[in-house]
């Protein structure tokens, strides 16, 4: 990740205001959060005095409540529902992101921002939308698996940015609404449209003279190779970046390289964009200044490649490609069992190796064999050791081997398929599944990891192309 200027600034409220018909009541939080005060003017509803809500007076719910509705939550929500999921309690509830985004990397970053409460206005092509919508139709025979994953919570504004009229609308949206502007077009394309960093800063400062809105803008780009250097204008897709970053060189078997089964280069760039944006928001709180952030897919994935890079430091040979096993630690990978079963196990140190050899394999002689005396020698002689372990495991089923490993305290795992993951007992026990609305009905979705137990992630609708044009244009004072 490269940052072209120091990131700094104050967290400021977006300039957009909801129409009176849907404006949420003013909410004031006490220092303890668990006892919020909600106020609303008498003409806006039945509440004319502060309403005190105390979590302790409510029965414990089965899980923290969530919403799949697009409007902001209002005081008509149940007390229990509101206390566990107040929209203003999410960290980014005052932030608006305008996203000229497509495919995976930037949409993933903005989805994470939206999970934390940010309003994300996604710009799409009329009738076509983000072209990742058309990569497959695996969800209910209509929606793309990629799109469903990374586009919940967003508003879709369909604009033909080659049309001068629609470009004027886009610039108005950015100027009036954007606390953060993001794009993952080819380097230079945004600037050609008049939407480069300096262009947008000037548009905002000219529209609001004396307010410094443009100076507070956080502007983020993702591209394959970054905004400078000989590869700047080279086309880049996920698998190509896996190749350039050396990931293909270390993945698969010695006979055949293999790609990673998910879009890891896109994901790494999206996550670095997300973390850099969050850092920029914090810095803006301190200094009142925004910044430009330039994220390279290549640099993002190379950061994740540092173990194999140092393993091959100063011209040493790379680690051998070892399929589903670890390239340098052994035994650490899949092993066959009786009945064509398979278990994954991992031994990380000499203490664990001794336990595996003596308690599970019942072969104390292995601990004194010089071929297996340490991690490096076991890795060097992995074929011989694999034959020994697999030969012993053939007398047991996969479940029996798993139990032996569990009893001995040896790390192990089941090789799950996708249906196993949807139904994983640990994920169920931790209540990780919710539902989001879509044009094909409610769809299961996993909560993002790691949020505070006091605030539920936003889990709202996946938009159709241009679904929010009318409301956004009305908000801008433009007749559709």
UniProtKB/TrEMBL annotation:
Return the annotated region ranges for Disordered.
Answer: 32-80
| MF GO annotations | CoA-transferase activity
Q: Write out the biased-composition intervals (Low complexity).
A: 64-78
Q: Where are stretches of biased composition, namely Polar residues?
A: 32-46
Record's keyword terms, sorted:
Transferase
Q: Which residues form the signal peptide?
A: none
Task: Tell me the domain of life.
Answer: Eukaryota
Write out the similarity annotation: Belongs to the CoA-transferase III family.
Q: What is this protein called?
A: Alpha-methylacyl-CoA racemase
Q: Which organism is it from?
A: Exophiala aquamarina CBS 119918
């Amino acid at each position: 990740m490269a940052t072209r200027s120091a990131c700094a600034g104050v967290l400021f409220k977006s300039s957009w205001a909801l129409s009176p018909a849907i404006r949420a009541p003013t909410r004031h939080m006490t220092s303890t959060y668990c006892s919020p005060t909600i106020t609303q003017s008498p003409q806006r509803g039945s509440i004319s005095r502060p309403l005190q809500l105390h979590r302790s007076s409510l029965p414990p719910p089965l899980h923290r409540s969530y919403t799949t509705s697009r409007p902001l939550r209002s005081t008509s929500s149940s007390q229990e529902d509101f206390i566990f999921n107040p929209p203003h309690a999410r960290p980014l509830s005052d932030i608006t992101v305008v996203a000229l985004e497509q495919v995976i990397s930037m949409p993933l970053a903005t989805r994470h921002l939206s999970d934390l409460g940010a309003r994300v206005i996604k710009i799409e092509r009329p009738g076509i939308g983000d072209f990742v919508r058309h990569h497959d139709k695996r969800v209910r025979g209509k929606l793309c698996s990629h799109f469903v994953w990374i586009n919940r919570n967003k508003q879709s504004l369909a604009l033909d940015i080659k049309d001068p009229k629609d470009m004027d609308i886009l610039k108005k949206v950015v100027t009036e609404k954007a606390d953060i502007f993001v794009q993952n077009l080819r380097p230079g394309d945004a600037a050609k449209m008049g939407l480069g960093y300096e262009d947008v800063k000037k548009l905002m400062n000219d529209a609001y003279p004396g307010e410094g809105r443009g100076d507070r803008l956080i502007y983020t780009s993702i591209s394959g190779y970054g905004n400078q250097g000989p590869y700047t204008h080279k086309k880049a897709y996920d698998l190509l970046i896996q190749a350039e970053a050396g990931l293909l060189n270390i993945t698969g078997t010695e006979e055949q390289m293999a790609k990673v089964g998910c879009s890891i280069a896109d994901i790494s760039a999206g996550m670095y964009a997300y973390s850099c944006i969050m850092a920029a928001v914090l810095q803006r709180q301190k200094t009142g200044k925004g910044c430009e952030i330039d994220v390279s897919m290549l640099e993002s994935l190379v950061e994740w490649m540092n173990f194999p890079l140092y393993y091959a430091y100063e011209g040493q040979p790379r680690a051998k490609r070892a399929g589903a096993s670890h390239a340098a630690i052994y035994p650490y990978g899949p092993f066959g069992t009786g009945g064509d079963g398979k278990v994954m196990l991992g031994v990380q140190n000499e203490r664990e190796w001794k336990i595996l050899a003596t308690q599970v394999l019942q072969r104390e002689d292995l601990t004194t064999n010089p071929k297996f005396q340490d991690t490096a020698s076991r890795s060097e002689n992995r074929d011989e050791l694999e034959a020994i372990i697999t030969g012993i495991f053939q007398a047991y089923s996969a479940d029996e081997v798993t139990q032996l490993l569990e009893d001995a305290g040896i790390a192990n795992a089941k090789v799950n398929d996708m249906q196993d993951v949807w139904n994983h007992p640990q994920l169920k026990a931790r209540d990780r599944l919710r539902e989001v609305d879509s044009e094909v009905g409610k769809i299961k979705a996993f909560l993002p990891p790691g949020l505070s137990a006091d605030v539920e992630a936003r889990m709202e609708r996946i938009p159709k192309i241009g679904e929010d044009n009318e409301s956004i244009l009305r908000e801008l004072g433009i007749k559709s």
